[in-house]
């Protein structure tokens, strides 16, 4: 059985950058040759791409952690470290990637050739050969590789169907789908039969083929997450046209018009854009109706609400089905394909983690600089070495730390602390 999994959380981590090397040429009669430490390699990226042959997120139910390869450290003789291999993760078409923490969208992989880099590998650190200058001819420090990025993401699969079959459980959607496509859904006479969406391609002579989806049954309260509600609604977000299947026979004691109102109310609660999608109404099980006034009464009521595309069909006998499908094809030819369903506010914007710092003044009047920038800088610097210390001050100046200290009112002779290293400030 092909189990349908449409949502999964996974942990991702890119590769760390390789460290730069501290090395000096060893030549006969030259006890300390020039610096020749090579750069570290870049860490691997984490990339998602669409695999058109995948239909579920089942793989992600069993494997939840994905880590790209680290970059290799630099070596002597200016040998550069090898870059870490990128990690390519294949997902089905229609997968939406969301940041787990914020729920914001990272990417919508809704096209056959969709591909996105979600996490970038850390940059490789420079070897000491790169820090040599005419006045600093033997630097004994190198850069460490940049750290990896990590994130937990939620994968959501949203079906890419042109037409969604809308309706209460047991109104005959699965029977209709099996009649009009080669899909073979399991059909039984009880509610919540269809627990996973079924897709089929409608291919009828004289019309353009289109994809139709029978989606899990909807019940009152779906927009609040009752029953299968939210997972149902997720799958019809992309459909351009809804076919609302009604059991016009009322054979189970339900009122067809009340059912129609209830489902449209759920759509409005979930997403007003969904509720405004064009709807064609299919009065199914019409072969079981012997009183013509039932059709007339229902048609008049929905016409007052603005719904005029109404067809009598029987999924069991096939009566009226071709007319319904031709109406769908005509309607689809008139509806533009939306490129996106999202606004700018829906999208995730990653924070820059690697060069953040903050400055606070403690009770002794010491200016304390802390943050990821500080950790990285002190990993590079040898504070006992004058050349390295000059480099340290240059970085503080270039990154705006010294200007920020001046803004905060620092005076000559005041103490600045970075982690466990302190120095006196002078302009």
UniProtKB/TrEMBL annotation:
It comes from the Bacteria. It is found in: Cytoplasm. Residues 347-427 form the OCT domain. GTP binds at residues 167-174, 192-196, 214-217, 284-287, 314-316. Its cofactor is Mg(2+). Residues 127-146 are annotated as: Disordered. The keyword Transcription does not apply. The keyword Hydrolase applies. Mg(2+) binds at residues 174, 194. GO terms for molecular function: GTP binding; GTPase activity; magnesium ion binding. Keywords: Cytoplasm, GTP-binding, Hydrolase, Magnesium, Metal-binding, Nucleotide-binding. Its main location: cytoplasm. Monomer. HAMAP family: GTPase_Obg. This is GTPase Obg. It comes from Youngiibacter fragilis 232.1.
């Amino acid at each position: 059985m092909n189990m349908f999994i449409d949502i999964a959380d996974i942990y991702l981590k890119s590769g760390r950058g390789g460290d730069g090397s501290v090395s000096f040429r060893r030549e006969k009669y030259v006890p300390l040759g020039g610096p020749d430490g090579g750069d570290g390699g870049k860490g691997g990226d984490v990339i998602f791409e669409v695999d058109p042959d995948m239909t579920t997120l089942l793989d992600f139910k069993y494997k939840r952690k994905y880590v790209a390869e680290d970059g290799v450290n630099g070596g002597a003789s200016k040998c550069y470290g090898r870059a870490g291999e990128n990690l390519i993760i294949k997902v089905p078409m229609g997968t939406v990637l969301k940041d787990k923490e914020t729920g914001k969208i990272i990417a919508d992989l809704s096209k056959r050739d969709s591909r996105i880099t979600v996490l970038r590998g850390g940059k490789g650190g420079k070897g000491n050969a790169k820090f040599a200058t005419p006045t600093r001819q033997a630097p004994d420090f190198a850069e460490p590789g940049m750290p990896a990025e990590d994130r937990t993401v939620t994968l959501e699969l949203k079906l890419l169907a042109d037409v969604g079959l809308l309706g209460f459980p047991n109104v005959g959607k699965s029977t209709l789908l099996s009649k009009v496509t080669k899909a073979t859904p399991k059909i039984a006479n009880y509610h919540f039969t269809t627990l996973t969406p079924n897709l089929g391609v409608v291919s009828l002579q004289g019309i353009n083929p289109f994809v139709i989806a029978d989606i899990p049954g909807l019940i009152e309260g779906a927009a609040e997450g009752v029953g299968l509600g939210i997972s149902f609604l997720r799958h019809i977000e992309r459909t351009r046209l809804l076919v609302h299947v009604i059991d016009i026979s009322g054979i189970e004691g339900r009122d067809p018009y009340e059912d129609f109102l209830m489902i449209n109310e759920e759509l409005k609660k979930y997403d007003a854009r969904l509720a405004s999608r064009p709807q064609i109404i299919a009065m199914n099980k019409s072969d079981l109706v012997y009183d013509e006034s039932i059709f007339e009464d229902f048609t008049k009521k929905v016409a007052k609400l603005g719904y005029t595309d109404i067809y009598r069909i029987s999924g069991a006998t096939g009566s009226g089905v071709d007319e319904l499908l031709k109406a769908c094809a005509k309607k689809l030819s008139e509806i533009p394909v939306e490129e996106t369903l999202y606004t700018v506010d829906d999208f995730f914007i990653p924070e820059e983690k690697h060069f953040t710092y903050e400055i606070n003044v403690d009770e002794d009047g010491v200016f304390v600089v802390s943050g990821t920038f500080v950790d990285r800088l002190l990993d590079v610097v040898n504070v006992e070495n004058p050349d390295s210390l000059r480099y340290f001050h240059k970085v503080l100046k270039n990154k705006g730390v010294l200007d920020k200290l001046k803004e905060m009112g620092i005076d000559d002779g005041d103490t600045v602390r970075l982690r466990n290293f302190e120095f006196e400030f002078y302009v």
